[in-house]
Amino acid sequence: MAKRTKKAGSGYPAKARPSAAAADDTTITSLKLLPAPLSPDMAAYFAKCEEKLGFVPNVLKAYAFDMTKLSAFVAMYNDLMLAPSGLSKLEREMIAVAVSAHNRCYYCLVAHGAAVRQLSGDPPLGELMVMNYRAARLSKRERAMLEFAVKLTAEPWLVEEEDRARLRAVGFSDRDTWDIAAVAGFFNMTNRVASATDMRPNRVYHRQGR
Amino acid sequence: MAKRTKKAGSGYPAKARPSAAAADDTTITSLKLLPAPLSPDMAAYFAKCEEKLGFVPNVLKAYAFDMTKLSAFVAMYNDLMLAPSGLSKLEREMIAVAVSAHNRCYYCLVAHGAAVRQLSGDPPLGELMVMNYRAARLSKRERAMLEFAVKLTAEPWLVEEEDRARLRAVGFSDRDTWDIAAVAGFFNMTNRVASATDMRPNRVYHRQGR
Amino acid sequence: MAKRTKKAGSGYPAKARPSAAAADDTTITSLKLLPAPLSPDMAAYFAKCEEKLGFVPNVLKAYAFDMTKLSAFVAMYNDLMLAPSGLSKLEREMIAVAVSAHNRCYYCLVAHGAAVRQLSGDPPLGELMVMNYRAARLSKRERAMLEFAVKLTAEPWLVEEEDRARLRAVGFSDRDTWDIAAVAGFFNMTNRVASATDMRPNRVYHRQGR
Amino acid sequence: MAKRTKKAGSGYPAKARPSAAAADDTTITSLKLLPAPLSPDMAAYFAKCEEKLGFVPNVLKAYAFDMTKLSAFVAMYNDLMLAPSGLSKLEREMIAVAVSAHNRCYYCLVAHGAAVRQLSGDPPLGELMVMNYRAARLSKRERAMLEFAVKLTAEPWLVEEEDRARLRAVGFSDRDTWDIAAVAGFFNMTNRVASATDMRPNRVYHRQGR
Amino acid sequence: MAKRTKKAGSGYPAKARPSAAAADDTTITSLKLLPAPLSPDMAAYFAKCEEKLGFVPNVLKAYAFDMTKLSAFVAMYNDLMLAPSGLSKLEREMIAVAVSAHNRCYYCLVAHGAAVRQLSGDPPLGELMVMNYRAARLSKRERAMLEFAVKLTAEPWLVEEEDRARLRAVGFSDRDTWDIAAVAGFFNMTNRVASATDMRPNRVYHRQGR
Amino acid sequence: MAKRTKKAGSGYPAKARPSAAAADDTTITSLKLLPAPLSPDMAAYFAKCEEKLGFVPNVLKAYAFDMTKLSAFVAMYNDLMLAPSGLSKLEREMIAVAVSAHNRCYYCLVAHGAAVRQLSGDPPLGELMVMNYRAARLSKRERAMLEFAVKLTAEPWLVEEEDRARLRAVGFSDRDTWDIAAVAGFFNMTNRVASATDMRPNRVYHRQGR
Fold first, then answer.
1. Residue contact D135–E210, C-beta within 8 A
2. Chain B residue with the nearest C-alpha to that of A107
3. How much is the ipTM here?
């Protein structure tokens, strides 16, 4: 287990290799779509991202070939993830990551894994959501929420009243159930747009919240 | 095969049973969420639905507990399904149904199966999208489009450059690829919101386009 | 959601396309097998089909290259689906469709979906069996019956005494359990014969019971 | 690897245990169904089994609660497995076992595994069909046949023209394709009837062809 | 059902075919790896195998290209399968076969199926472990043990405290749980080494314990 | 996307929560197994770990209830991961993580994800192995290696000569193929031991190589 020494002689000559994320901020998707001029609203929004986050998330740049699509995505995202809800922002991000882990989506796991680390102040919680949420020490509320979201992701046709009843049993309201479903649904959408286009996360996410 | 005679004596006494869809227009979801007052925009949109379709789709009523969510949904839906695109409206509806068939979503199969029947004027095409798109006699373009959409639905983590190349090979542009992914992604979202809430389609859909 | 207008301009020029079912009554399977002369029994049976149903189901024509195979199929089918049983004919057809939905069999879903619509007088019930039986409002008896049939279809190796006990608990006798298993088993056979040969359902089924 | 010594001391005291197959010839299924009087035809058939095989296969006893069902089963079985066909009897039995292996059906694996051992005179061939047909050294014809049968078993909805073409490419006629499909379909039926009823194979099969 | 007669005329001319296991003792894997000189320890161990079993298991010959790998394998194997444990040797072999059945590993099913037959003196028990352990008449202890081992094999990410609690409930200690996990884990390793290299079992196993 | 502000007001009051990894270094597994006295060899090995790594990996502490098991594990691990091989140490760790990602094993993903980050000097490469190796920009050699290892993990029964041929085609020798299989097999074992016992990784891994 002396494996951690960086250059222990191996049978295969190490070559300097570029970072696996080297091009992630320059080739954001594998589709060649020209950016459209930003509408005033979207220009303001991008400026706000730069100011608050220090960068514009690559998903927004990916959608920026069409202002209608970009605006619709931003409106839905901001409502789901940031508007008042019975779910905390951390809970919504935990759903985002657990769903994206089922779908093995590189973009969403990197970006929202960082969000879980930051919102919780607990880096291993972010790792656990990425790796296997079942191994995390969660409250009954969190566990029921993620069970519902992941079953809805994996086998939506099996979700029935008894699944909703399990959410109620740990205190979620019907409105909360909607929000869990809507967030889980949303990431089932974005996971697929990201995978279909080979969308790459901003490199800065990798170091956030460590 | 005299099975089609409606009341052939059987060992089990038939009872009058209510239609399996009896309550579909009155109990739209199993969540108790009070409708919010419609915003002027949404009131106008509902009126337009009544005028053009003769009814307001139940999914809109389901979202109408919150005007922000309703507006965001409508904006995204209308852009994806109705705005100009390299994909015809029928093609977009075919994707909607093939994705919903994988996810076995009652609401979306009923509503969008009707749309395929109507847009194509070919009821069996709607049935085939619901039952197994692989059994339909499709053009290479349609087949490639649905293969991509359904793989993206079933195993998004396996979608790679060679999948995009197959779309290009039958003439889809990168923008078309985005649209296929976005429509497939959107129904992966709505299938889950519908399944999570037991959303019921307007009964009128069942007879449309037959 | 103005999508229901049949010729709303789209970016992709609509072409007149032949019905997806255009050849379903002329090329019944993709195997080239010459029909054998009908035996007297089978000729009489075909005549009876014409008289009672107005047509000969395509599956019978598909088997008609060999009288022994046709007779054996007809004997087993008629016993299972039409003979006295603790299961009503509608219940047997519901099993047929739920099994065929799991196996996504075009022929059986069309033909037996029509049977459910006709026997129940409730078109949405037929749709629900095709789309997702779990979304239907079923009696406990019906639900237990379909759960057993679909589990037996999907993972027969997991069926054990507790599954049989669930049937007993809602009032099924051991003989009824046999019949549920036999009908589910039969459609697991025919689904595969139909899929293997690309068997096409009579076009008339699509409109029956709507 | 001295593990073969039968009573090497272990931490857990060995008890005399009854054979796992002890009751297989007395409690043939877990359903309590009274045998019906054998019809003359079936009585003759049972007598012929006793004469040729030395016993009546348990599956026949299981069906013997109803002469119509028994006769239909026997007619279909004998046609499929014993009538002239482009497939040899061994090939049909290989399909039977490979399908039953996918479905993990105890009855069919025991009974038809014995048939493969006997017809081939090669016990390991029987084991390979039970365990993993892909590990067997098969001819291209046999391999293509089993690939088709097992795909049809596992994912019938994916079987298409290119699968049929693979059979043609190794010399199978369309009639042979029907027979492969019909045998594979038949065991998908019987596997499920056997699993649903916990059907037990005659104990004598275990030693046949070793 | 006269199928058991070895040369009943069939439509396809039987050819003398070599045994499917013909080369199993000469081409042990499909990798060309030269045996290394046996170390004194390993030479002694091979001699002991010859003496006690009458042969050297092929898996040992497969590892014998490298004495370090062979020694490590033997050390782990002998500890797990032969050292004192709360699990009997038969129980450990039952786990070996049930795990290998899930993974459909020819080598391990043949070698350890023989071990179950020999240690139990009950050939059908060996068959049941290979075919479907759920069909065996097992004690609650054995059943719980195999349920744990097979779930751990199929979906290790779902194993949680309630699974361990089920083992405790039938009397297993925490040390026993470790041993069940370790044996199940070990065969998940060897199944994969065997499948990756097409490892072939000694032909003698096929007849052992019949 | 102002989500990154740590305490933005949400509808759900944040509580101070302990780290999800709080107890990972004190309750290493959920089994209560008393540590045995370290043998001299193992004491020396633990001391070497402390010296080289700064800590003893929790997996070793988990095995330390039994010196035979611990020694066998260490011998096999060190040979596989550290001995000379045609595979570089980084390649072996990449296999470890890709396999563990399929099996969603918290312990192995944390410990070996850290190793990939450290050996490569490229943190995103570690993330990609955890999340979805298919999204990484890999050499053909690396890609073929991981495809083989993950197929062997997911569906070992499908691995055949053409899979080995793909390794040869990118330059792997038969000995390399063994090593790929052996490393993939080993982590299929340890993933299961870790999941079965809820093994927790040393907290220090989370920060290594970031």
1. no
2. B157
3. 0.93
